[in-house]
Inverse folding.
């Protein structure tokens, strides 16, 4: 059981380039989310989805786009990368049953923007 | 009102000691308080969680104490071991339309000396 799989693990981009971070889960979870982790700031929610075709913004959505065409996949797009987007990005998934639930995280994508 | 404040930023204890990590929140609508453990190069993983209808929860060497009136909760690690050296995040979750939203503390880096 793979859980939550993120690709790539590492990436270096130049300012202005675009990129898609991939996230896939095999637990049939309805809820998926993207966080960025920066030193001293914990994890901040970028976007989340409660099911295929449904997405919403988190705390820090600017500069990022998401879509959810299937239950399994939730890609995160950077349309024009900026140095401020240098961070470690984590994808997470959880089931939804009307109560708060623990999230299952991938191992992250380490992204550097030059 | 959505913040979760975590302290200390870092903590060093001797093997066998009892590190304590504290968190505070403002929004009384939070109704799920998980703690996540993160090792270098990995994603956070759920360690233990509590809901506000109980004041304490123990799982093995890990205990959450919860004070609803003070809006504070803490993690205690009994008989700490070098393998417990990791970053710990507290979090608070709130239900919203169709799902939930989780706010993380800034994290505590714990080092347990052998």
């Amino acid at each position: 059981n793979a859980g939550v799989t993120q690709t790539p693990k590492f990436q270096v981009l130049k300012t202005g380039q675009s990129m898609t971070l991939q996230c896939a889960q095999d637990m049939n979870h309805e809820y998926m989310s993207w966080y960025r982790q920066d030193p001293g700031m914990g994890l901040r929610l970028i976007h989340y989805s409660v099911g295929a075709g449904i997405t919403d913004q988190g705390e820090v959505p600017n500069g990022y786009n998401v879509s959810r065409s299937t239950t399994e996949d939730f890609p995160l797009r950077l349309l024009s990368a900026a140095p401020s987007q240098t961070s470690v990005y984590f994808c997470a998934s959880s089931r939804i049953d009307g109560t708060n639930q623990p999230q299952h995280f991938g191992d992250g994508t380490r992204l550097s923007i030059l | 009102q959505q913040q979760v404040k975590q302290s200390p930023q870092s903590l060093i204890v001797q093997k066998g000691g009892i590190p304590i990590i504290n968190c505070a929140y403002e929004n009384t609508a939070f109704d799920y308080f998980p703690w996540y453990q993160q090792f270098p190069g990995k994603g956070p993983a759920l360690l233990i969680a509590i809901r506000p209808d109980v004041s304490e929860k123990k799982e093995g060497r890990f205990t959450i104490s919860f004070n609803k009136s003070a809006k504070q909760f803490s993690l205690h690690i009994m008989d700490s071991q070098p393998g417990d050296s990791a970053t710990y995040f507290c979090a608070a979750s709130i239900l919203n339309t169709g799902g939930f939203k989780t706010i993380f503390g800034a994290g505590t880096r714990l080092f347990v000396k052998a």
